Amino acid sequence: MDTVLERTVMNSRRFLFIGAKRVSLMEALFAGALFGTASIFIRFLPMFDASTIGFYRLIIAAIFLAVINYVFFRPRSSELVSYFKHSVPLGILLGLHFIFFISAVKDTTVMNATILVNTTPIFAMIIGLAFFGVRPTFAAILGLLISFAGTFLIVLSSASLVPGNLKGDLEALMAALFWALYLNLGRPLRKKVPLLILMPFIYIVAAGKMFLVVYAFNENLYVPTLSEFMVLVALALLPTTLGHTLHFSSLKALTPFQAATTALLEPVVASSLAALLLSEVPHPIFIVGAAATLVGIFLVSKETFS
């Protein structure tokens, strides 16, 4: 009887664990797809530079989530102080990620910046292995390599292969490193701190760093028109509030390495949307790259279905 009960309990725990991983995987995949909408919205903001867009999307996302917290959760002041302390390191890392990626786009080719910032899963895997004891499976490593090759083909299909600037290439790698650190340090917090109360603080801290960047390169913050503001709201709500928050939420059951790999859906979705909405027909190489990226993501995440 005891043996049957123990097996039942063990099977129930295993079922719940697999169920949690599947939910987190769906969150990460949905987030990766939402990330792909960002470039489409940015196309409708020709008057904005990257740093100004980053500031607006982060501050609007922070305000939106802060309102949700006030209406539905009403956290106590002592809780807010505690959560803010937790959020500061993550907000700084997120802000640094944005800053270095923006600088990379300015200092090297878009192709180089896109490819190198997508090395985040590699950094996440190394950090997880070195400091958190997270060992990826052989299938996961193979999937990462295939996805990275697919991402390279996607970017190659829409950009000319021209040499980049070493400074910009290094900045893109730093952006990838800060994102990997963000995911690895954020995972323990995701398991013990309420998600929707933590995220506004992370966005506020990151927005503060973006604000400093805006004033470092511009004399005045560009004030959007009504139509531009609506695009900024969509950019803040879909790929940022919903996409980034779901991506962070997936850390509850996924490793940072797995979560970072699902974000490689971004170039697949972005190019597909550009073809549908902007009549930008992709190069045949894109089809091969997209297929490789999807196969790689499946290999990385397939253990969640076992």
Outline type: globular
Radius of gyration: 20 Å
Number of continuous helical runs: 13
Helix content: over 70%
* Count of spatially separate domains: 1
User: From N to C, what is the helix and strand string?
Assistant: HHHHHHHHHHHHH
Number of strands: 0
Q: Average pLDDT across residues?
A: 81
Q: N- to C-terminal separation?
A: 28 Å
**Low-pLDDT segments, ≥5 res:** 4-17
Strand content: under 5%
Class by alpha and beta content? mainly alpha
Note the main sheet. Answer: none
Overview of the structural elements:
The protein has 306 residues and is mainly α. The protein has one domain (12-305). It has 13 helices and no strands. It has helices at residues 2-35, 38-43, 50-72, 77-107, 110-117, 120-131, 138-157, 166-192, 195-217, 226-249, 256-262, 265-277, 284-301. The longest helix is centred in the N-terminal third of the chain and has 34 residues, at 2-35. The two termini are 28 Å apart.
Structural features:
mainly alpha, 306 residues
In short:
By secondary structure, the protein is mainly α. The chain has helices spanning 2-35, 38-43, 50-72, 77-107, 110-117, 120-131, 138-157, 166-192, 195-217, 226-249, 256-262, 265-277, 284-301.
Which helices and strands appear, and what pairs or packs with what?
Elements: H1 2-35, H2 38-43, H3 50-72, H4 77-107, H5 110-117, H6 120-131, H7 138-157, H8 166-192, H9 195-217, H10 226-249, H11 256-262, H12 265-277, H13 284-301
Helix pairs in contact: 1-10, 1-12, 3-9, 3-10, 4-5, 4-8, 4-9, 5-8, 6-8, 6-11, 7-13, 8-11, 12-13
